[in-house]
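dumping this here so i dont lose it
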C-alpha cells in the first residue's frame, strides 16, 4: 500500500521537476539573449548610433518581459542569481541610454524589475558612464562630460541612502563602493583634462595676440 502511494507521489514530483527543469533551461537561454541585447545596446550608444540603440533596447524590453512572464510560476527561478543578473543588465542598458540621450530616467516599475535588480543595474550604469566621459574628453566635449559626471554623482548619492541588509539589496554596498571609486577617478581625470584644455586655449590666445603685435 505504501509503495503504491510513493509511486503516485514520485510521479507528481517527477512531473513538477521536469516542468521546472524545462523552464530553467529556457530561462538560461533567455538570460543569455537578454544580456547580449543589452551589451549591444550600450555599445551602440557609445558609438552614438542612437536609433540602433533604441531598437535594441526595445528588443531587450520584450526579452525581459517574456523571461519574467515565463518564470512567474517558478518564483525560485525568477529570483535566481542568473535571472536577476540578466535583469540587472537590462536596467543598466535602459539607464545608460536614457542618461546619455537626455531622456527621462526609467524607474523599476516602468522596467518591471525588482528593486534590488534596479539598484544594482543603476550602479553598473554609473560605472559605464565613465567610458562615455573618457570618450568625450578625447574630443574636447567637456560640457557634456561634466553633465554625465553630475549624473554619476547623483546616482552615487542615491545609492548611499539605501542602507538596508545585503539580502534585500543584492549586495548593493559592494556595487556602491565600486561606483564611489569610479566616480573619484573620473572626476580627477576630467578635472585634470579640463585644466589642460583651458591652459592650451590660453596659450593659443597669447600666441595669437603676440603674432598680431607690430614688430
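and the seq i came up w/
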Amino acid at each position: 500500500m505504501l509503495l503504491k502511494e510513493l509511486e503516485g507521489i514520485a510521479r507528481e514530483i517527477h512531473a513538477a521537476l521536469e516542468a521546472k527543469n524545462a523552464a530553467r533551461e529556457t530561462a538560461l537561454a533567455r538570460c543569455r539573449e537578454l544580456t547580449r541585447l543589452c551589451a549591444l545596446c550600450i555599445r551602440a550608444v557609445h558609438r552614438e548610433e542612437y536609433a540602433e540603440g533604441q531598437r535594441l533596447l526595445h528588443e531587450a524590453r520584450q526579452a525581459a518581459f517574456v523571461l519574467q512572464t515565463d518564470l512567474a510560476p517558478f518564483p525560485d527561478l525568477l529570483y535566481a542569481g542568473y535571472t536577476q543578473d540578466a535583469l540587472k543588465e537590462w536596467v543598466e542598458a535602459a539607464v545608460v541610454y536614457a542618461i546619455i540621450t537626455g531622456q527621462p530616467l526609467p524607474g523599476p516599475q516602468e522596467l518591471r524589475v525588482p528593486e534590488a535588480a534596479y539598484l544594482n543595474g543603476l550602479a553598473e550604469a554609473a560605472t559605464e558612464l565613465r567610458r562615455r566621459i573618457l570618450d568625450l574628453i578625447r574630443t574636447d566635449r567637456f560640457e557634456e562630460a561634466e553633465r554625465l559626471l553630475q549624473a554619476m554623482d547623483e546616482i552615487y548619492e542615491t545609492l548611499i541612502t539605501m542602507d538596508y541588509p545585503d539580502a534585500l539589496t543584492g549586495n548593493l554596498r559592494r556595487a556602491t563602493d565600486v561606483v564611489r571609486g569610479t566616480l573619484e577617478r573620473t572626476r580627477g581625470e576630467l578635472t585634470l583634462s579640463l585644466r589642460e584644455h583651458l591652459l592650451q586655449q590660453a596659450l593659443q590666445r597669447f600666441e595669437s595676440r603676440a603674432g598680431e603685435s607690430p614688430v
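The CA atoms of residues 116 and 169 lie 5 Å apart.
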